[in-house]
Amino acid sequence: MITSAVLAAGSLTSPATSAAPPAQGPRFAETARVDFYQSDNDASGHGEGRAYVGMLTADASGNFTGTVAAPSLVVGDRVTATATDATNSTSEFGTNLVVQPLVTSSARSRSPARRSRRGR
After folding, report:
1. Which tens digit of pLDDT belongs to each residue from 88-97?
2. Of 18, 42, 111, 118, which is least packed with CB atoms within 10 Å of its CB?
């Protein structure tokens, strides 16, 4: 369901992923509500939602992208999500993802190789 979780300035971003898990077919695709949760650290990798974070709505193709306010999350926390269709059928919790920091292009350009060349 979600393939990445990036935290920047207290907001969680989950870019352009599909709200329709393949095993569940298209019934969750169109205009599904995707609810994000801070997850427990269950060994199965599919933990339960410990605390509600926020929601996004999928487009008609089942894709969503956006940012939800997440002031209680920190980098390293785990998040999961569910999808709920127009008839209020809800998916199981998705795979836990570790919240990652936002990496900017300026941070990428400061690789160790670049820094060592500048230091000469």
Report:
1. 888 888 889 8
2. 118
24's CB contacts (< 8 A; 6+ apart) are 83, 91
CB-based contact 99:78 (threshold 8 Å):
yes
Token pair recorded at residue 73:
């999350």
Backbone angles phi, psi at 42, to 5 degrees: -65, 135
Single out the residue of 59, 53, 76 nearest to residue 18, CA to CA: 59
Q: Which residue has the tokens 């999928």?
A: 58
Residue 105: C-alpha distances to residues 35, 63, 89, 117 (Å): 29, 25, 40, 19
Q: Identify the bridge partners of residue 6 per DSSP, sorted by sequence position.
A: 13, 100
User: Structural domains in the chain?
Assistant: 6-118 (2.60.40)
How distant is the alpha carbon of residue 68 from its chain centre?
Answer: 10
Contact 6, 98 (CB under 8 A): no
Give tens-digit pLDDT for 47-63: 788 999 999 888 777 77
